Amino acid sequence: MKKRLSTILLLASVPALASAEMSEEDSTSIKLDAAVVSATKWRQSSETQPKHIRMVKPDDVIFFNPQTTADLLELAGGVAVQKSQLGGGSPMIRGMATNRLLYSVDGVRMNTAIFRSGNLQNVISLDPFALERTEVLFGPGSVIYGSDAMGGVMSFTTKNPQFAADSQRVKLTGSGMARYASASGEMSGHFDVSVGGRKWASLTSVSSYNYGDLRQGRFGPDEYLKPWLVQHQSSGDVAISNPDPLVQSPSGYSQINVMQKLGFRPTQQWDLQAALHYSTTTDYARYDRQTRLKSGLPQFAEWNYGPQVWMLSQLTAKHSGRTAIYDEMAIRLALQRFEESRIDRKFGKPLRTTTEEGVNAYSADVDFTKLIAQRHALCYGVEYVRNDVESTGTETDINSQESRPALSRYPQSAWESYGAYAEMNFALHRTLNLEAGLRYNHYRLVADFTQQGLELGFAPKQTINKGSLSGSVGVSYRPGHNWLLTLSATRGFRSPNVDDLGKLYESVEGCVVVPNPGLKPEYANSLEVGVAKSVARWLKFDLTGYYTYLQNAFVRRPFTLAGQTTMQYKGEEAQVLAIQNAASAYVAGFELSVKGLLPAGLGYHADLVYQHGEEELDDGTRSTLRHAVPFYGRVGITYRYAKLRMELYTSFQAKRTWENMPDSERTKTEIYALDADGNLYYPGWCTLGLKASYELLHGLTINAGLENLTDRRYRTYSSGISAPGLNFIASVVYRF
Question: Fewest CB within 10 angstroms: 53, 122, 371, 383, which?
Fold first, then answer.
């Protein structure tokens, strides 16, 4: 089955470039092509793809020791990560973030109807040591993945059980890991084991992560220090002196991940699999809210996220057979359960507010591939998704311990999506490929506000029922043996979800937000051009430029309800607002990757990312796009000799002055530093790191590293918690 699938999809490959991506052990050349699955959900040569795709391999995960899957994404290049707390990580790609990016796990959509425009940390639910491969597709990917795939798609493929070969009775493989990191006092461990026969196979994976409060660097902006801690005493809340302001307290937390897979191959044509994923965290503090001041005192005595729970049950059936309508077929049925909560209490106030949200996400999709005229490949499929959202609110008096119902974050809601797509890859010539795709999506959202217990003057049930069309076209051209040129135009979309329609009662400065059933999808229209070139073994560069225009963007603007611009809300007159399609934005930039091999086991690499964007404000003026990250990158020198691997690297982000700060960021004093004029700005930073690994015995590897060698106190762009200071990491990995 796998061999036939490669024949179908690895089109127009040049024999001399038939192997996978660059390997530092390769002594002859640097390859331009690699097999990817994120573009079509099937294995496909990247040289036939006009889309820009980057990969992270398991060996790099072991070598670099990312704390979470959010940190792992930074290894791909072109992905920046925002953090509001240690237990977090919100990716930013090409000026877009949060619910304008899509997460896919083994082909299953992870985004839910309550993915918000604020920072998300759902990606940390994935276990980095249970991943077989990670791919990032840059730019809109809605043809294959549907709603939310506007800035990019992060496709995660988890490890699979290994079947025994014909010459074996049983195949036993697995790995174990233990890790320590000094900046957070991390103590973590992982193991996985696969047992396979010729028809049956099983994989079990378990990980445990434990982090203490994170220590930041000694040298940097004083605004990043927190000189106080909040204690609740018998007399009430008090702010006491922090004995060590470099320790960001509270920030520690723990997490457990479990994965179980069962595989069955009754024949050579069928591959069946059942999978169960489970992840949960402890409570963890939202650190940026813990550092916010009001009138010289902490604004919050408590601001925590409750346990973040994710469960995925999946059944997958793949069939290989030359039928009239397909050569390969994949059926995926999935049920996901998401649970999250927020607990906050104002400083000096007795009322603790808790909101709890749960989502049951059901999905079913069928994908097909078909070889046409022995040259062209057709990928097509259908998908159904349903999200049922439940939400509750509670207020508790910490003195009397009495509780009462409070306003929930969301209404009880149901969000449905029906989609169908087709994408064709035309092998016009051995050097030229054309790809074109189209998708139609119909979505329906029903929100029930009757349980809120408030009379606001609108219908208790609100419904959005609309459709959207997205498409893509692109070419990949290889004018010579070591050249690859690409050009593509794509259109992605995001349909309104419960977070857009449902957060109705958040009163901000005398305002109340009401539902808007007329809300339509927002669209991202993108043009991308790329060039890749390899010169023998010592140079490969890959340069991609793009321009994306966002239309019908969701923004909160003044609204009328029953012809009125104000309404009575909790006994007070409040201005009426609603989420509307009332803004536009653009982002443009380039991504440059350079790497090569040098004599004596040396090598080098550099990933540089520049982007600039602007968005329209309420008054018609324009501001820097919030998620357009200042110029950033990573440069490294590598060394390999026998069983030793080493890398010395530097990472950096450029400064952003007050004049170039996004309008929405200019009031976040808890996040940024102050310039000489007392205005907020984002300080640039540069840090140095050293990583090394050595294979002691067959399968047994020791990894060690020093991060932030200069002990800089810095924050990645838009983050509310500082990065680790000088950090020693050590791990032992055994694979069998």
Answer: 371
Q: Which helix (H) or strand (E) holds 2?
A: helix 2-9
What's the CA dihedral at 113, 149, 717, 656 to 10 degrees? Answer: -120
pLDDT reading at 702 higher than 50: yes
Please answer whether residues 668 and 680 qualify as being in contact, where contact means their C-beta atoms are separated by less than 8 angstroms: yes
Residue pair 367/361 in contact (Cβ under 8 Å)? The answer is no
Report the alpha-carbon distance of residue 525 to residue 368 in Å, rounded.
Answer: 27
> What tens digit of pLDDT does each residue of 424-457 get?
999 999 999 999 999 999 999 999 877 655 555 5
Contacts 24+ apart (CB under 8 A), 558-566: 559/514, 559/516, 561/457, 561/458, 561/514, 562/457, 562/458
Nearest of 720, 563, 659 to residue 224 by alpha carbon: 720
In order of 82, 87, 471, the CA distances from 120 in angstroms are: 9, 11, 27
How far apart (Å, rounded) are the C-alpha atoms in residues 730 and 726?
A: 13
Give me the residues paired with residue 373 across strands.
Answer: none
Say if residues 38 and 100 touch (Cβ distance below 8 Å): no
Bridge partners, 580 (sequence order): 555
Among 291, 286, 319, 318, CA closest to 303: 286
What does the alpha-carbon distance between residue 143 and residue 137 come to, in Å, rounded to a whole number?
Answer: 12
| Burial per residue of 255-265, b for 16 or more beta-carbon CB atoms within 10 angstroms, e otherwise | bebbbebebeb
**Token match 């002055």: residue?**
657
pLDDT 10s digits, 530-571: 999 999 889 999 999 999 999 999 988 888 887 889 887 666
- Across the strands, what pairs with 443? 417, 466
Find tokens 């989420």 and name the residue.
579
DSSP string across 520-576: --EEEEEEEEEEEEEETTTEEEEEEEEEEEEEEEEEEEE--BTTBSEEEETTEEEEE
Give 152 or 32, the one with higher predicted confidence. 152
Residue 434: closest CA among 491, 402, 492, 477:
477
Tokens of 295: 């009138």
Task: State residue 503's pLDDT score.
Answer: 72
Neighbours of 127 (CB within 10 A): 25
pLDDT confidence tier of residue 137, bands split at 50, 70 and 90: very high
